[in-house]
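Let's practice the habit of predicting before peeking. Look at the sequence and jot down your guess about where helices and strands might fall. Then scroll down.
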Amino acid sequence: MLSLTDDPHLKINYQGVDYPVDFAFDTVINYFNLLEEPELSNEEKIEGAIDLFFGNTPNKPDLDNVDFYEFAIRAINNEISDYPYGKNTGQSGGSQYVKYVDYNKDAGAIYAGFLQQYNIDLTKERGKLQWNQFHALFDGLSDKTQIKQIIQIRQKPLSDVDKDSIADWQNAKAYYALDDWRNNAESMAYTQHIFDMIKAQTRKEG
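Done guessing? Here is the structure:
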């Protein structure tokens, strides 16, 4: 979650040592893509995540330090999912938009929205704009932007549509439908299961 008083760059404190994390918005999106890659094994996904977030971190622990990376990935997942609103509504999973956005399929609409409203060219912000900054700006996009209009189409139930407009809304929903409705929070939660399997295998081999 973005703070106006803290550095937006993420660091993981483990046993009294701070380890900087690559928390740029494009790194996080690549992380989502990695977790959804069907051709990768669970171990390859974890190794890929470690490389994404800690590839440029000096003096980072060795890959066989499972306890550190389990701690770090959990902390990163929590930071990605941390959202200031809706915590008292009984809903889980962070942002209300997570389930209705595909950062790949909707890339053009998201890019256009940032350029239209903030005059920010996201292709020039790769590696610089942090995920919490990106997410705050994304949530602040107005209903005049294409991406917010697409989200509204995906979110609005047909029961709230006038019967004379149902056919048009059905067509719009089909046109903007997502191929996979699983949200990113579910994929991130699965990383804990992967670590449990890795640690169980390590104990078995030891």
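How did you do? Residues 184-205 form the longest helix (22 residues).
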